User: What shape does this take?
Amino acid sequence: MLEKVRIIEIPKITDPDGRGSLSVLEKNILPYSIKRVYYLYDVPSNSTRGGHAHKELQQCLIALSGSFIVVLDDGKERIEILLNRPDKGLLIPSGVWRELIEFSAGAVCLSLVSAEYDEDDYIREYEDFITFKKK
Ligand code: T46
Assistant: This one.
């Protein structure tokens, strides 16, 4: 399952006159249509976001500013990925437990997701997640 996790290179257009960079997500960069966008910000460095899995939802996380670590767990394996570039997206398939930790000052986490908000899609207890993975 974690082999389906991947980093997406988001095309970056660096201005030839030194006006900075512009990144754009379009066409088929993501394997789903974006149905909802939300973002996390003002997160204290000692706080954890996430701490759940989704049954169906797919998402792409981007560190628009600053950095944070995404811990991913498929019930068998656990990996940590540092996000610190606005031109890199982390694609997380459904059925993966995630925790976001160690937010830097000013970090902004953009999330582009495949479905509208549905609390029934969340698995918020790790034991329930392990049971879900065994089905
Ligand atoms: C995820 C991580 C990265 C809404 O009303 N609408 C929404 O679209 C979302 C995402 C949340 N909410 C409400 C539900 C809770 O009352 O906002 C509150 C905080 O949500 P939650 O505790 O789920 O926040 P995080 O940061 O732990 O998790 C969120 C996403 O829920 C989740 O899908 O992967 O960000």
